[in-house]
Amino acid sequence: MAKQKKPQWPWHVLTGLILIGLACSLWFATSLISYEWRWSRVPQYFAYHAEQAQRAADFAQVEVVDVDGDRARVTLLGGAGGKQVVEVATDSLLVSAGGDVDEGDVIGVNRHWAAGPLLWGLWTTLWISLASGALGLLIGLFTGLCRLSNNSTLRDLSTVYVELVRGTPLLVQIFIFYFFIGTVLNLSREVAGVAALALFTGAYVAEIVRAGVQSIAKGQGEAARSLGLTAPQSMRHVILPQAFKRVLPPLAGQFISLVKDTSLVSVIAITELTKSGREAITTSFSTFEIWFCVAALYLVINLPLSQIASRLERRLAQSD
Question: Which residues cross the membrane (predicted)?
Answer without folding.
Answer: 12-35, 126-148, 160-181, 288-305
